[in-house]
Amino acid sequence: MEVTCLTFNPFQENTYLLHDETNECVVVDPGCYERGEQEQLKKYIEEKGLQVVRLLNTHCHIDHVLGNKFVADTYNVGLEIHPEDEQTLRAVPAYAPVYGFPMYAEQLPASFLREGDTVKFGNTELQVLFTPGHAPGHVVFYNGPEKICIGGDVLFQGSIGRTDLPGGDFDTLITSIREKMFALPDDVTVYPGHGPETTIGYEKKYNPFLR
After folding, report:
1. Residues 69-72: contacts with CB within 8 Å, 24+ apart?
2. Domain for residue 137, yes or no?
């Protein structure tokens, strides 16, 4: 599985494209809002000859959902989220203009992801892990054979997701990290929603929030 990161919008959000040798592609957390950002995403997909088959959100804060409708409409795919984050998603239109996104277009979920589900595309499978705390319905996507985790805003290099937004809870987040993320092998690479990738082993050893 190849992981491509495109960073979009003023929040510097990491949008991930996952694909394998079949060229089937999954888009995770499309943050593309401006027309130029949308065209950048589209150009990459076209140049690589990819076929977008699924659209996933780790969670539904505004910076991770700005491009949902563009991807859904352009590639005729339904949005998949955890049911506990539907309220988070439905809240976005009310505050998007205040955050400087007056042209935000809502895309509601077509189906739901739950703990233990498997996301399949091409020859690849991702395991869905439920990791609330930053958002009530946060999930991460784990590829065990290749030791890759698409981690959203749970665990960052040297940091953790913020918990001061509606639905956030510090103790819940720490529990999610310790029980779900830190249960993964130390050499798993975590691709977070912001900033550079890290590994489980590095964060166990050096993350100041988790010592």
Report:
1. 69/105, 69/106, 69/107, 70/30, 70/32, 70/38, 70/41, 70/105, 71/27, 71/30, 71/41, 72/107
2. yes
Predicted local distance difference test score (pLDDT) of residue 211? 85
Q: Which domain holds residue 135?
A: 2-206
Digit-coded pLDDT (tens) for 43-67: 999 999 999 999 999 999 999 999 9
Q: Which candidate, 70, 78, 66, places its Cα nearest to that of 29?
A: 66
Residue at 170 is within a domain: yes
Residue 132 in any domain: the answer is yes
Whether residue 211 lies inside any domain: the answer is no
Could you tell me where the beta strands, DSSP code E, fall in the chain?
A: 2-8, 13-19, 24-28, 51-56, 79-81, 111-112, 118-121, 124-130, 139-143, 148-152, 155-156, 159-160, 189-192, 198-199
Q: Check which CATH number belongs to the domain holding 53 and give it.
A: 3.60.15.10
pLDDT tens-digit readout, 111-141: 999 999 999 999 999 999 999 999 999 999 9
